[in-house]
Amino acid sequence: RKEVEQDPGPFNVPEGATVAFNCTYSNSASQSFFWYRQDCRKEPKLLMSVYSSGNEDGRFTAQLNRASQYISLLIRDSKLSDSATYLCVAQMYSTLTFGKGTMLLVSP
Amino acid sequence: DAGVIQSPRHEVTEMGQEVTLRCKPISGHNSLFWYRQTMMRGLELLIYFNNNVPIDDSGMPEDRFSAKMPNASFSTLKIQPSEPRDSAVYFCASSLAGDNEQFFGPGTRLTVL
């Protein structure tokens, strides 16, 4: 069983829509959590950290539920430039465990 | 400031050949990570170094894979002999310390025929 699981998508949404991604992780000892963004044929880049108290960065909101071992990412007012694959990540010490990613396609 | 540098960016080779991938981490970073990404398995950690010392190589698939970090500014990942199932994108990443943000290089796209 994959340690970090995500719906692969793709999620097809129109510009301006709100879209939510979820992921679950199996290792309850995981210490930190992140969302990374990966554009087609590019390297992953850190989008934001995820905290139990919630974390907002502009149009992006991330949330962690440790009891359910569940992480979410909400994108409001989607832009064409948000089209990418979003990777859910759990960290323990120096080790990052990545989900396979959820693909988002935003259309005009 | 230059990010993580990887070479080559693309490599096409034949089964049985030796392949060497190279990585230069961001200056001042003391942790370096090698990852492999495939459609089937996603992004997987192969090995990571802290202060040039290998800390965890449990992700290295088999003895055909080896990695070295002779100094703080250079690391190699070698596959010998290569097999078609090794075809993937290999990323190198570095961080200031092991549990800080990891910055990824552009990757090496390896195709083994």
Q: What does the model show?
A:
- The complex is a heterodimer of chains A (108) and B (113).
- Chain A is mainly beta and 108 residues long.
- Chain A has no helices and eleven strands.
- In chain A, strands 2, 4, 5, 9, 10 and 11 form a six-stranded mixed sheet that branches. A five-stranded antiparallel sheet of chain A has the order 1-3-8-7-6, with no helix packed on it.
- In chain A, strand 6 (55-57) and strand 7 (60-65) form a beta hairpin.
- Chain A is globular and about 40 Å long.
- The N and C termini of chain A lie far apart (37 Å).
- Chain B is mainly β.
- Chain B has strands at residues 5-7, 10-13, 19-24, 31-38, 42-50, 53-56, 65-71, 74-79, 88-95, 103-104, 108-112.
- In chain B, the strands form two sheets. In chain B, strands 2, 4, 5, 6, 9, 10 and 11 form a seven-stranded mixed sheet that branches. In chain B, strands 1-3-8-7 form a four-stranded antiparallel sheet, with no helix packed on it.
- In chain B, a hairpin with a 3-residue loop joins strand 4 and strand 5.
- The model of chain B has no long low-confidence stretch (mean pLDDT 95).
- Chains A and B meet through strand 5 and strand 10 of A and strand 5 of B.
Which H/E pattern describes the elements of chain A? EEEEEEEEEEE
**Integer-rounded radius of gyration of chain A:** 13 Å
Distance between the ends of chain B = 36 Å
Q: Main beta sheet of chain B: strand number and arrangement?
A: 7 strands, mixed
| Tally of DSSP β-strands of chain A | 11
The number of distinct helices of chain A, counting runs of at least 4 residues, comes to 0
Biggest sheet descriptor of chain A: 6 strands, mixed
Q: Helical percent range of chain A?
A: under 10%
Rough outline of chain B: globular
Strand content of chain A: over 45%
Q: Over all CA atoms, what is the radius of gyration of chain B?
A: 13 Å
Mean pLDDT of chain A: 94
Query: Structural class of chain B, please?
Result: mainly beta
Q: Helix content range of the residues of chain B, please?
A: under 10%
Mean pLDDT of chain B: 95
Counting DSSP E segments of at least 2 residues, the number of strands of chain B comes to 11
